[in-house]
Amino acid sequence: MVDTDVRLGLSGSDLAIRDRTFKNDLARVDESSLTPDNCAEFKALAEAGLAGEVVLGKRFRDQDFLTVRKDRIVDILTTLRDDADCDYRLVSDIFGVDLLGFDREPRFEVIYSLYSLSTNRRIVIKAQVDEDEAAIDTVSDVWPAANWPEREIFDLFGIHFKGHPDLRRILMPDDWVGHPLRKDYPLGGEEVEFSHNVRGREENLPG
Amino acid sequence: MTMQLSKPLELPELARKNNIPSGIELERFIDPETDQETMTINMGPSHPSTHGVLRLVLELDGETVVNCTPHIGYLHTGIEKTMENLSYYKALVLTDREDYLSNLCNNLAYSMAVEKLMNVTIPIKGQYMRVLLNELERIASHMLWLGTHCLDIGAMSVFFYSWQDRDRVLEIKEHLSGVRTKTSWICPGGLRGDAPTGWLERVQEFLDYFPARIAMYETLLTNNPIWIERTRGVGIISGEDAIAFGMAGPSLRASGVNLDLRKTNPYSSYEEFEFDVAVGTYGDVYDRYRVRMEELRQSQAICVQALQKVIKMGPDSPVRTSDRKIAPPPREELDTSMEALIHHFKLFTEGYHPPIGEAIGAVEGPRGEKAYYVVSDGSNKPYRARIKGPSFYNLQALPTMVQGRLVADVVAMIGSIDIVLGDIDR
Hints:
The structure holds two protein chains of two kinds. By secondary structure, chain A is α/β, with parallel strands linked by helices. Chain A has helices at 12-24, 40-47, 73-82, 147-157, 198-204; strands at 31-33, 54-60, 63-68, 90-98, 108-115, 122-129, 135-137, 160-162.
């Protein structure tokens, strides 16, 4: 581990604490890997010839996570939606994670949290997205529900969704620069427009 | 973990008899070829019927809505980013401020995610108290929805009554915690404290009083011809569409989809409670109203059961985990035990370090599935905290609902999906 993590703004004791817990917690984690035998979703993907797309399958605290490559994400999610054993017709949530602090490539994950109406199970599909080519196919044709969450990921992470019908910023103003939920986006104060207490404001700015 | 679903409740015959679409015919869309003139108006962001700072750009042909484009983000406060920079315990207070009408449900979803990461279980009394508080919160939230929804449509007097009832629940919360709304009373590890003296009696008093109030609201509205005329056949969304749009909660159930996380994926010992899930038939504004009114009755029934269970457990059983790494020791121990003092100090300065991994905590809030996805990198701050706002997904279905309807019905539809802008913009 490095002494300082400049991009995350961690140093000294913070970093030491993090590294210590990295090691200590390895023993406590009840984690197992998923295979087509113990996971119906993995099996459905394998039957559709998509097993090669799965990078990692993980079961952690009774939750299932499948990490996949992004290239055939539409096929993967359509299979999970239409397969009779899976029946993941309901999108619980779609969002992004920036893995900058984990020292891991690729940097981004687009996460599809799906809910099955017939088995009442939940599965989390993580699609890996590079920093250099931050783009992935849209799934707004698979679920209309994906429209806004994908706009939100575009807005807050700067990940482009190819084929999206209306890819605009959704939460931030249209002329905003940067993508706030990226880990290297600073957590700072906004410049104030009024000046009567501006000195006090400047002193109180974080960072 | 599955269990037998309860039979959906049948809505009375009256609802079916009155299935006459009000207003104009649905086919009145505009042909772009004919070059018919339309008018674009801006509704919101500061409009009394948009329930917050929602802006809708409506394209109208006369009184008919041709197109509707929602613009959101006016209440974006970056809660997810802020949570990433606070320790787990401090990030809890932000969950209150996110969907500010279902604070305790948000607390529970976040706490469940953190507890799953830390692998701790909560004493059974704490779980019952959580159920009790969540159902009280649902009553308070639905009371606010009922009042504002009726006010939008023009039934003004309901607002005064329902606000009174919401205030009673807020007073109960104030008695418990000293705070009326944003209590943060449910925290990772259990509850911040047990019920104070006289609190359980006060809840009992409210629960005895409340059924008559539900009956009163139903008398005012359910068979009221004006109310039926304004809501029946308005804002119809089919079950298939509702699923495709990822809708949640009463708005989804009104379209005939029987999904309630309290039944399908029971958490916090909900499997021990007896209650029914109300499911609608047509998915219009009236069905959404009926589903929520039935939910009030069911919530009251759950509260009665939870209260009995809590009373039966006695005042001495704990509501917090005894794991000192996640929950602080009782105040009186600090005077005598050095160990307790150290734990207390460590907990409120450094906090705790969940193992690397991620966890989802999902509860059935008043507006639908409220889910927190917490990623831990082993530090004392959540690496990423994602909040799933059910209102965000419910609002997505609004343009489909309003197309071809009258502009006066738009407020009825916004009210019926019960959006909270804090939940949408986060």
